[in-house]
Every structure is written in C-alpha cells, then in structure tokens.
Design a protein that fits this description.
Blueprint: E1 2-7, E2 17-18, E3 21-22, E4 35-36, H1 38-45, H2 52-67, E5 77-80, H3 84-91, E6 100-106, E7 111-114, H4 128-131, H5 137-148, E8 158-163, E9 166-174, H6 177-183
Antiparallel strand pairs: 1-6, 2-9, 3-4, 5-8, 6-9, 7-8
Helix pairs in contact: 2-5
Amino acid sequence: MIFYHIDRCCRLLNQTKMELSPFETNVLYGSVFNNLSVHGNLYFRELDRLDISRDIELTLEYIRVCKYPPMPSRFQSVFASRTIEESTFWIKFFPNNAPFGLITIDTDNYQIFDCSWITPQPGMIPDIQTRCKPFSLGCMCDIANAYWSKKVSNKPIMEVLIPLPCKIVKTEYFHDQGEFNTIYSP
C-alpha cells in the first residue's frame, strides 16, 4: 500500500529507507527501547519537565503494552496519511514559509487509527483538551484506550502507523505551503 508522510525537518529527501535510530538518552527509560523513531527520541529526551503531549504519549505506550501488545509502538513507527489530501491536515501545524518534504512510503505493514483522540479538534465530543487538564491519568488512559481500540470519534483524523523500517519510494521537497498548494491544491 502507498502512504504519505510529511517530513517537517526535510531529513528524508535522499533516503530510500526509514529506519530506527539509537536511543539518544541515558535516563532510566533507556532500558525500555534500544532503538526509537525520530518521534520516540523526541518524547523520551526531556523527561524531567511537565509536558501534556509527552505524558499522553507515555500513557499511550503504557496502555499499548498492557492491553494491545500486537499493535506497533508509536515510539518505533512513522506516521503517515492514506492520501495526499489527508496529509495536508499536518502541514497546518508549521509556519507557511517553512520547507518540508512529502514522502511516499510503500508498505504492507501498517495500522490505521483515529488520532483525533490525541490531536483533538474544536467541536469534538467530549472535549479531550479540557478533560486532560490538569494531567489526569484516568483521562489519558481513556484516550489511549479509545485510540488503540481503533474507536472512531465524531471528528476523525485518520493516521497510519507504520513500524520502522519502511521503504521510501518517492520524496518531494517544497519550499513552503504555497508551492505545495500549487501542485496539490486541496
């Protein structure tokens, strides 16, 4: 199957494969994983400060290990979209003038989830952003269970979770969102 990944850092432009990288920290959690994705390394780097996004990611991983062990770890996967149109959702999270890559991935090893549980949108029922304050472990566990059970919300944002390594079949570089929109107008 073909999927699309937005490379915000333009790290993958000349590669033919996305792979795990060595774990980049020596804190206590270093014994959990030997290798992580870029996403995994980002969230395990600064464990000494409060961060709701990181805490939700750690809760997601805990619930996955306890209740959904066959599912791939978000810390050892890459995120993608089913179509180029769906991938445009993620482009809005960085500045209009920021360069990025559109990576086309070919794989038969994937799972599809509704990530609106962890990236809530206005009007989503119930309002997850409000429920998770102040750092409610119970609410984060509810969110994690909804995500891993593949429950679809009333405002779904589908994401494809692809365990690494995976094969890159095409890379495209865009100087900004305007250039992308010229080629792939929504």
